[in-house]
């Protein structure tokens, strides 16, 4: 049996995924949670009980801890659990970030239900399961931002001032402005708001 943990903040979607996977004779749904921190806690609990999930299926945007951050945490702690992202975000930038975070699969929610079960089997065998068109797009539209530029631009787009960003990230205001200027230049736009919108549209934030 392939042990699976589900993390999805929309209760209806979570229920549907759980019900569909329980119909598969070789898949055992060990848990279903609605946010990233709960997923991490459940993952640790199952690990302690000797029932560590083989596969974690998670959405990207969830309260508290995103699916990408969850995948990074799994990777950082060296857990054997493999991660599949299931999302509405058909953006190459998100796929690249998911792969960088150690995810083994990236599927869209509008894909046929049987694709998820097959993806779980493929990933469990050590393979990858990635939406083919996104895989092509991901390598033709590279993210020009580095991690710090991405972090600063995300906070600026959320309405924080340079001073507030500097305090939160323990940087000088001048350094924050430099990161914003670099981001604006790399993205070829006129200001930080346009930079934030474009980066979000591309899936780079």
Automatic annotation (TrEMBL):
Residues 138-203 form the HTH luxR-type domain. Keywords: DNA-binding, Phosphoprotein. Signal peptide: none annotated. CDD domains: LuxR_C_like (cd06170), REC_DesR-like (cd19930). The modification 4-aspartylphosphate is found at residue 59. Residues 3-124 form the Response regulatory domain. Coiled coil: none annotated. This is Response regulator transcription factor.
